[in-house]
């Protein structure tokens, strides 16, 4: 019985460890659902990635802004009053972007979801202001794995309640 229990625990822990792979892998970026295609009409022409074919997800290489989420929240604190003036309706705004291997940001895309998580075309001015604010944040610590820096996707979300941003989170 003990032997069966140990075998079961070993099998379960092996499966869990394999499922937790966060190392960068060689799936071509352009084959991934979340790929942000360069758009010459909206993107900064001076922003480049180090390897267009292998942009990693944030959870694989962990790019970071200063000390992390608290630094992001502190960055937005003094801006909230002005940003709240632009809020039209409650929900969540998601800003997704790329941090290149040099810690520079670009390819910003935004979406607004109402309280029922339905994508809507509202809060456009607020979305644009948030993109401008994030692009002005400056240097990010780029994603890194095994002493190699990677391009990585990142997103910042803003929860709006009573036409006020009540939370900034990743």
TrEMBL record:
Which keywords, in A-to-Z order, does the entry hold?
A: Signal
Q: Where is the signal peptide?
A: 1-19
Is Signal among the key words of this record?
A: yes
This protein's source sits in the domain of life called Bacteria
Please identify the protein, giving its name as recorded: TonB C-terminal domain-containing protein
Per the UniProt entry, what species is this protein from, by scientific name? Answer: Marivirga atlantica
Identify the taxonomic lineage of the organism of origin. Answer: Bacteria, Pseudomonadati, Bacteroidota, Cytophagia, Cytophagales
């Amino acid at each position: 019985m003990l032997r069966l229990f140990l075998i079961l625990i070993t099998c379960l822990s092996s499966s869990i460890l394999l499922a937790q792979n966060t190392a960068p892998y060689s799936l071509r970026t352009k084959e991934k659902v979340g790929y942000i295609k360069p758009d010459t009409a909206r993107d900064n022409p001076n922003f480049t990635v180090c390897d267009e074919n292998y942009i990693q997800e944030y959870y694989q290489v962990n790019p970071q802004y200063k000390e992390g989420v608290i630094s992001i929240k502190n960055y937005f604190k003094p801006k909230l009053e002005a940003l709240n003036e632009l809020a039209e309706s409650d929900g969540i705004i998601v800003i997704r972007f790329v941090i290149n291997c040099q810690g520079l940001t670009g390819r910003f895309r935004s979406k607004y979801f109402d309280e029922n998580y339905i994508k809507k075309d509202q809060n456009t001015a607020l979305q644009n202001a948030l993109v401008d604010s994030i692009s002005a944040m400056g240097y990010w610590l780029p994603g890194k794995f095994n002493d190699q820096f990677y391009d990585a996707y990142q997103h910042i979300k803003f929860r709006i309640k009573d036409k006020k941003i009540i939370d900034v989170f990743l």
